[in-house]
């Protein structure tokens, strides 16, 4: 199997069985609260640069293209945290990282039927062999594989600390062990650890780009449409800042109203329109009335679920109060699937929330959002 195909096979979303369990367990420690706190400093640097760009844009045009700017911000965060690189997407569009990322992350490639088939049927990749590589593993995607290979080689010869995902995932995966003949040994050889790291870093980019950028855009849209909610969030930020000099990891950790706003955005516009799971063994319920065969694909329509009157009264109204402790306590937790659900939920959930919290707090503290003539009605 080609090295590049091996890397893609290490994407968590494509893995199954014990291999998935082992790699999921090994990667998860890279997203603990302590590790997120370390990466939070990098996120703040990207947010500061982003706010400078917003200020320049508003002074020049009096408005911003929110989706375009949040996409640039999200790419800066991915480059900093998943690749250890400082880039400025809005200020240096000729950067090879940016040019290759824009091809990989934007349509038509990420909307192609082949990509959909790849995620639904992971074995499709290896069964097609070289055809799959020509269809999916483009020269732009190969750029990131080569980049990561170079980064890992350089870091193996350096003592410098980076506090980014590569470093933390490397630490976590390298510490994962198994027993052989009564001896504790590393779970994987160094070569395979590098494949896992390269796989997770590229998957980090693919899974965390549009979902985060779109959620931040939708947050600004709803705040602009609901000035009362925007004002309440601003006042909550001011109150929260009384104990802190700046927006930081500790400040956003225990911030109920901020989470209420973000959760309502995620309910209204779920990043995943549906959640797909494959049945691992024959199963029946409701006294055998409903039977699911092993290997059968089960799809949960997250968007429809998030807009069901049964769980969310007046579902077309944007209402953060539905996430207050007293309002959500009796709600079925499986009625909210913004990040999936169960053991295969989004492994980067905490990172995504940290990124969005810091960005939203800093933005609302510095700016006010208003709709303009070009702003969509819905």
TrEMBL record:
<protein>
    <recommendedName>
        <fullName>Cytochrome P450</fullName>
    </recommendedName>
</protein>
<keyword id="KW-0408">Iron</keyword>
<keyword id="KW-0349">Heme</keyword>
<keyword id="KW-0492">Microsome</keyword>
<comment type="similarity">
    <text>Belongs to the cytochrome P450 family.</text>
</comment>
<dbReference type="GO" id="GO:0020037">
    <property type="term" value="F:heme binding"/>
</dbReference>
<dbReference type="GO" id="GO:0004497">
    <property type="term" value="F:monooxygenase activity"/>
</dbReference>
<feature type="binding site" description="axial binding residue">
    <location>
        <position position="346"/>
    </location>
    <ligand>
        <name>heme</name>
    </ligand>
</feature>
<dbReference type="InterPro" id="IPR017972">
    <property type="entry name" value="Cyt_P450_CS"/>
</dbReference>
<dbReference type="GO" id="GO:0005506">
    <property type="term" value="F:iron ion binding"/>
</dbReference>
<dbReference type="InterPro" id="IPR050476">
    <property type="entry name" value="Insect_CytP450_Detox"/>
</dbReference>
<keyword id="KW-0503">Monooxygenase</keyword>
<dbReference type="InterPro" id="IPR002402">
    <property type="entry name" value="Cyt_P450_E_grp-II"/>
</dbReference>
<dbReference type="InterPro" id="IPR001128">
    <property type="entry name" value="Cyt_P450"/>
</dbReference>
<dbReference type="InterPro" id="IPR036396">
    <property type="entry name" value="Cyt_P450_sf"/>
</dbReference>
<keyword id="KW-0256">Endoplasmic reticulum</keyword>
<keyword id="KW-0472">Membrane</keyword>
<keyword id="KW-0479">Metal-binding</keyword>
<keyword id="KW-0560">Oxidoreductase</keyword>
<dbReference type="GO" id="GO:0005789">
    <property type="term" value="C:endoplasmic reticulum membrane"/>
</dbReference>
<dbReference type="Pfam" id="PF00067">
    <property type="entry name" value="p450"/>
</dbReference>
<dbReference type="GO" id="GO:0016705">
    <property type="term" value="F:oxidoreductase activity, acting on paired donors, with incorporation or reduction of molecular oxygen"/>
</dbReference>
């Amino acid at each position: 199997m080609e090295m590049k195909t091996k890397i893609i096979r290490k994407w968590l979303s494509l893995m199954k069985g014990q291999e998935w369990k082992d790699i999921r367990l090994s990667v998860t420690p890279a997203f603990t609260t302590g590790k997120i706190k370390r990466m939070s400093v990098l996120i703040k640097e990207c947010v500061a640069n982003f706010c400078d760009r917003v200020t320049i844009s508003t002074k020049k045009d009096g408005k911003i293209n929110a989706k375009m700017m949040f996409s640039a911000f999200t790419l800066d965060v991915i480059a900093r945290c998943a690749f250890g690189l400082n880039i400025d997407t809005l200020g240096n569009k000729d950067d090879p990282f940016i040019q290759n990322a824009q091809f990989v992350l934007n349509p038509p490639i990420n909307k192609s039927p082949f990509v959909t088939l790849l995620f639904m049927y992971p074995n499709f990749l290896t069964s097609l062999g070289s055809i799959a590589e020509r269809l999916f593993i483009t020269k732009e995607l190969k750029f990131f594989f080569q980049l990561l290979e170079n980064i890992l080689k350089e870091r193996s010869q350096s003592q410098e600390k980076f506090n980014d995902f590569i470093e933390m995932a490397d630490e976590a995966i390298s510490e994962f062990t198994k027993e052989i003949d009564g001896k504790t040994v590393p779970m994987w050889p160094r070569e395979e650890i590098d494949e896992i790291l390269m796989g997770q870093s590229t998957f980090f980019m693919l899974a965390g780009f549009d979902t985060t950028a779109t959620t931040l855009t939708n947050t600004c849209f709803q705040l602009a449409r609901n000035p009362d909610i925007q004002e309440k969030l601003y006042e909550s930020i001011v109150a929260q800042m009384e104990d802190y000099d700046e927006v930081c990891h500790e400040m956003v950790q225990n911030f109920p109203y901020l989470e209420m706003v973000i959760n309502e955005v995620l309910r209204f516009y779920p990043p995943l329109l549906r959640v797909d799971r494959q049945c691992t063994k024959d199963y029946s319920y409701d006294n055998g009335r409903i039977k699911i065969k092993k290997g059968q694909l089960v799809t949960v329509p997250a968007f429809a679920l998030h807009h069901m009157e049964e769980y969310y009264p007046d579902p077309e109204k944007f209402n953060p109060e539905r996430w207050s402790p007293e309002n959500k306590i009796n709600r079925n937790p499986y009625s909210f699937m913004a990040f999936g659900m169960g053991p295969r939920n989004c492994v980067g959930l905490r990172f995504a929330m940290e990124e969005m919290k810091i960005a939203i707090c800093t933005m609302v503290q510095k700016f006010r959002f208003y709709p303009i003539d070009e702003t969509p009605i819905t």
